Structures are given as structure tokens and as C-alpha cells.
């Protein structure tokens, strides 16, 4: 607007800031800055000063400035709504200390209203699907707020199978911007399981300006096949000629789906004469449609061949199989099995009574290293019998990669340092032989005693006399000491992929654990900002490449008051105190202050240089109380 008469200052009379922020669960809001219309001088240079004192919700980034004739300046105005209410402020500008002009500002804090369009989509159900299949479900989100909203979607998987790549994904995966009052977007969730997964229910979280809110739930499962036999060998014992015996073997289906064989072979048993051949007829009768049905490593048991006992478990886990022994003689047996292969253990002795059938002998497979190049562990167990014969069983083990040693979830207040202790077990049990020295210093003896000690003829001790009536005795020997295993510590961030400077997650690069012992490893977390942080901590033996890992999630929650400052003085007498404000970041930070007690005086804004601290002064001048 153009002034009339002698008024030399051009300012707008009205400024509106509406829909500038959201009311969140913590009443925090991201600021919106709006430049004030230009201030100008028509005739002569003037000094312009802003008399407005910044509040918690309105900040005028202008104090005073001298303007030349015709010069213009833009004044940034930042609005930080703390509540979902309307705001009204009057900002006064003073010209040369005489003339004053006012500008009115109107603002309104609004609530963030992001929700799904259809209420049934609050729960997205994938149902039960088989491994290898892909199912996609969509949900539509709507922004019922009166301003634009920028947010992102994420979820923290609670079971390890969902943490694998491309098992449960969302699109779009980055930031989403919705228009106000009805702006929508379509979110697609894809479930592509690779193996059997138990029923799950995961929350999809909306993250906006560091605040997390639950938006909808994803449910589903993957049904697979798990079939096993109750025993691997069926002993029949002695059977009369031209008679027959029957035994029952039980097949158990512990999975979710029924199983039917796709092939049958005839004959399933028989006899082959020397120099002849026996044809096998294989019939293929598929039970379901598939592009490739293949059964590998089908066993064919030959009379006289050594039976094979198969084991499979995670590395550093264990599995126990049972071998049945039968004594057909009239004398009891006390057998001492001979086990080959360091991965297998069993009882040192076993007693089989006379005519006893199916005496169980348990063999435990506990691998300490994963299979190299898909080569299975090989071993055997031999039972020497009293009549000079023996029973030999071949052992074959598969060591699979380890599962997570633990899934840890912690809630830590912001600005609070927290140390998590992660137990590390050294599964190796090796000793190293080292020379050791053991010394005693500070024994006050006389020169005569020292000379007698030297002449004593003790072959395992030597004494050296020093000037200050002191002697040092050394005793040499050998001792078996535990071997220290060195683990390299690898820290991988899962969510987010990279930490901001306001959050730290620290640990040592290496740690050493003695053989067959457990040690706690420290992981320190600190955050100035609220949020959810998920990391994978891996401890790898660089010599053998064996490893164990933890999945740990830290949720940074709002912090409480850092302390209480008491200011006590008489009426109409001032007192002062200070608060240390530290800036640990690598760049300068601006702090705004706010106090609703009118008797407390403090600077509305101050700067703290990078990696330094300042003392913020507070004054108290209480007036008379009525």
C-alpha cells in the first residue's frame, strides 16, 4: 500500500499465516516461514526497529536496520503453533524512535489427519500363501488436514523371516507428499515369502518430523511343508525262515499343508543275482501343477552297506539321533563305542542286556563351524562286539548358518546415554602353551642373605641383589593358558540406513573372548532426537569366518526435565543465575528460550558455536504480591 502525506514507511497492514503447522502427540510442529512484504523508504534514509518480542509460536527475524531511500528489505516470519488454536499477534515497527506502524498476524495451528480411506483397510490381510508366491495388497491414504503433509511409511519386523530382503516391502518407500483437504495416495504392500512363516501382525508406522504414529496393520502367514519320520532305521531282529515280520514307521507332518508323493518306484525291494540287472519302473503322478518337480539324493539301501545317520542343525546348535542296538546272545554286552569326528559325541559306554532288543544309543551332533563349499561333515561310530565282529554307522552332518542370538528392543529417553551389554560366547575350546614369568619385587633382605640364596644350589630360582637392599626373584616354567579368540565387530544400520549427527551408536571394532567362556560387549546409544533405530551387530571370527549376530532396536522417547533451577530473592530485588547450554554438533546452533513466568528475564535467542558451550543467564526481579 502506498502511504499518503509525510509518512515515509511502506508496510502491509495485514499478514495472515494459516495452516502453518500440526498439533502432534507432543504438540511439536514444523515451522513455516513467510517473508513480510517489503519495507521501503520514499524520501530520506530512516532507522527501523522491531519492538516485537518473539514468543514460543511466532518469531520475527528482524531487530533493527538503517534503510537508505528507496531500499527494501524482506523480514522472515516463522510460525510455530503449539496447540490447535487460532493465534493473533500485533508486531510494531518504530521509525527513528518516533513514528510507529503495526502489522497484524493471524495464524492457526491445525491437527494432522492422515488416515486410510476405507475403515476395513485398517487391517490388511494377506491370508495364508505358499512359499515362492507373491501377493500384493493396496491401501489408499487421505489427508484431511488443511495443509500439505510430508511423511514416510515404515515398519519394524518382529520375526527374523520378515527381515529378509524383499519378503515384505512397501511402495512408495520414500517421502510422500499429500495435498490438503482430500489429497490421496495409493500404497502397495507386497508379501513374497521364501520359506514357512508363522502368522504375524505388523504395524505400519507413519513418520512425520520424527514422530511415529500407527497407521494400519499387516497380517499374514506362509504355509509350508515339514515332514519327518519317527526313526531312520527299522530293526527286525531274528525271523524264522519262510516267515515274515512287520514293523511300523510313523510319518509326521508338522507343517501347514498336506503332502502327497509325486513319484513311485517298482519294485521297492528285491534280489539281484551276480552278473544280472534289475529294471526299475518309476511312475510320475504329480499332485500339483509345477514347472519343475525334482527329488534329489534318493537312497538305495544295499545289503552289506554301512547305514548312514543324517544330522542337520544350525551351527553351534545341536541335534541328537538314536541308534538302536540288539543283543541276540545269552550274555550281556558292555560296549565302548568309537566315534570318529569332533562334531559328534556320545556316551563312553553302553550296556545291552542278553536278548535285549532296540537298546537306544544317542549320538549328538554339535558343529562349531559351518560347512565349507556345501561339503557336509563326515564321521562314524563303531560298536565292537564281544564275538569279534562290529557294527559301523556312518555319520553325516549339515551345519546351517546361525540364527539371531537375540532380538532386543529398548526404549531410551532422549539426551540419555545407554549402554547395552551383548553376551558373546566363545564356542572354541582350544589351549595354547606359553612360557610364563612370575616375579616378586620389593623383598628387603640383607647382602648376606642374598649371598646364601645364591649359594643354596636351588636350580629353579635365581636372585639378583640391587643397591637399595631389594631383590627380584624370577621363576621360569610353563603353563597351559586359554586361547583368546578375536572377534571383529560389524555394525550395520537397518532403519534408518545412515544415522544423523544427532544420534550416535558406538562400540569397539574388536573384542577378545577366552576359550569356552562368555563376555559382555558394550554397545552405547545416545540420541538428541526422537525416533526408531534398528541395527544388526555381528561378531565375526576372522580366522574361521564363523559369526553370531544380534538384532537390536532403540526407540528414543521424549526426555523429562534435565534439572530444577531455584531463584530466591526479596521483593523488588533482583537475582541472577545461569544455565550451561552445550552444543556437541559440528556446526553452530541457534537456541530459542521461552518462559511463561513474567518475573523471569532471559534472552529470547542465543547462538552456541560448534562443539562448545555457553552460559545462558537468567534474572529474577519479583514484584509485590497482593
UniProtKB/TrEMBL annotation:
Biological process, per Gene Ontology: axonemal central apparatus assembly; cilium movement
InterPro entries given in the database record: Hydin-like, Ig-like_fold
Signal peptide: none
Gene3D superfamilies named in the record: Immunoglobulins (2.60.40.10)
Gene Ontology cellular component annotations, sorted alphabetically: axoneme
This protein's name: Hydrocephalus-inducing protein-like protein
Gene: HYDIN
